[in-house]
């Protein structure tokens, strides 16, 4: 399987910093460009949390961390990189500007992944002279822990680039899912958007509060989804007759006037204040960093529990967790070879045969 020798990250926000953390903790050197004067501090905070989580995952020791370099330009960041992850804000004009700059200076065979959560890759490719190597590589926060990455190719993306991207993402412990058709917001965000819209109505109409709604998710179907997803859960709910029986029994409910999903509540000041105030109460004074650490601890514990299922082979995310932690442990045991020694070995003239 192909691996990443050197990576570049363009954008160091929540998602960009998460990519940096995952790459560095896999022993890969990363060069990052972000014009935000606070970028170094923000990335450092994410690195603290990611190291803490990985030490819990692999208590026996981690691989030697890759080297992080803060570049002053996109050109400097992508120099020598064979994998580039773009994570700038969701504005098509900004994506065009950044991707054109990446495309101009990156090696022609470098894979360029975009973290966009909804912009079509075909719309982004118009700014590139080498559009065939662009894919959407859409992750989930925190990127350093949640393994899923949705890979979406555009009209001009080559099948070889999609396959190479799949291999590269898998090489850093991710679960790549190649989306079959190019659609806005891809698959995961389509599902999240549906739940989010219905949740906004339930809050707006005073049916429930922010905290009660989160409790309804995390004490019920959220746990089911974490280990079986949606369709396998419903297959089991259909009893011995399986999915056909479930659809026959509950399918008619879809025509009942339960949902407001076709309408979107206006996010006016009143609704925003209601959600924000209830969210503040729910946090009980915990800072965002404290909540991130609680989240990370919970995610590691869930994946670790799933890793023990199926006679120790792991189930769902737990199976991948087993493979990933074993890989990290194996990397940690590799004798460190200096870059200078590797370069000298590569440049040493080979003996002619005969």
In short, what is this structure?
The protein is α/β, with parallel strands linked by helices. The chain contains 15 helices and eight strands.
Q: What can you tell me about this protein's structure?
A:
By secondary structure, the protein is α/β, with parallel strands linked by helices. 51% of the residues lie in helices and 10% in strands. The protein contains 15 helices and eight strands.
Topology:
Elements: E1 6-10, H1 14-25, E2 29-33, H2 39-57, E3 68-70, H3 74-78, E4 83-86, H4 92-105, E5 111-114, H5 121-125, E6 134-139, E7 148-153, H6 159-171, E8 175-178, H7 188-204, H8 210-218, H9 221-228, H10 231-237, H11 242-250, H12 269-283, H13 288-307, H14 317-333, H15 339-347
Helix pairs in contact: 1-2, 2-13, 10-11, 13-14
Order of helices and strands: EHEHEHEHEHEEHEHHHHHHHHH
Strand order of the largest sheet: 3-2-1-4-5-6-7-8
What is the CA-based Rg, rounded?
23 Å
- Number of helical elements: 15
Reported for the largest beta sheet, the result is: 8 strands, mixed
| Number of E-type strands | 8
Search tags:
354 residues; alpha/beta; 15 helices; 10% strand; globular
């Amino acid at each position: 399987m192909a691996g990443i020798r050197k990576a570049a990250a363009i954008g160091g926000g929540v998602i960009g910093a998460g990519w940096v953390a995952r790459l560095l903790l896999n022993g890969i050197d990363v060069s990052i460009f972000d014009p935000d004067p606070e970028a170094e501090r923000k990335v450092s905070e994410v690195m603290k949390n990611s190291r803490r989580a990985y030490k819990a995952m692999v208590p026996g020791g981690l691989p030697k961390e890759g080297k992080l370099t803060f570049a002053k330009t996109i050109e400097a960041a992508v120099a020598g990189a064979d994998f580039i992850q773009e994570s700038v804000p969701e504005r098509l004009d900004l994506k065009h500007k950044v991707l054109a700059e990446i495309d101009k200076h990156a090696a022609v065979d470098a894979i360029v992944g975009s973290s966009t959560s909804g912009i079509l890759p075909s719309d982004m490719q118009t700014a590139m002279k080498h559009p065939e190597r662009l894919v959407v590589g859409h992750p989930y926060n925190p990127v350093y822990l949640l393994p899923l990455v949705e890979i979406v190719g555009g009209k001009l993306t080559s099948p070889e680039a999609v396959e190479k991207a799949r291999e590269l993402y898998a090489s850093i412990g991710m679960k790549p899912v190649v989306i079959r058709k190019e659609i806005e917001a891809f698959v995961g965000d389509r599902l999240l958007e549906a739940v989010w819209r219905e949740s906004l109505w339930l809050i707006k109409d005073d049916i429930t509060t922010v905290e009660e709604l989160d409790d309804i998710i995390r004490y019920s179907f959220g746990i089911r989804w974490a280990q079986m997803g949606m369709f396998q859960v419903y297959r089991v709910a259909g009893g011995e007759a399986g999915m056909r029986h479930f659809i026959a029994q509950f399918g008619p409910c879809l025509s009942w006037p339960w949902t407001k999903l076709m309408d979107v509540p206006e996010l006016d000041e009143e609704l925003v204040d209601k959600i924000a105030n209830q969210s503040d109460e729910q946090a009980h004074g915990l800072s965002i960093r404290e909540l991130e650490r609680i989240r990370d601890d919970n995610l590691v514990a869930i994946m670790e529990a799933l890793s023990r299922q199926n006679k120790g082979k792991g189930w769902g995310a737990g199976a991948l967790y087993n493979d990933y932690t074993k890989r990290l442990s194996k990397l940690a045991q590799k004798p460190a070879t200096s870059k200078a020694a590797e370069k000298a070995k590569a440049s040493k003239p080979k003996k002619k045969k005969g």
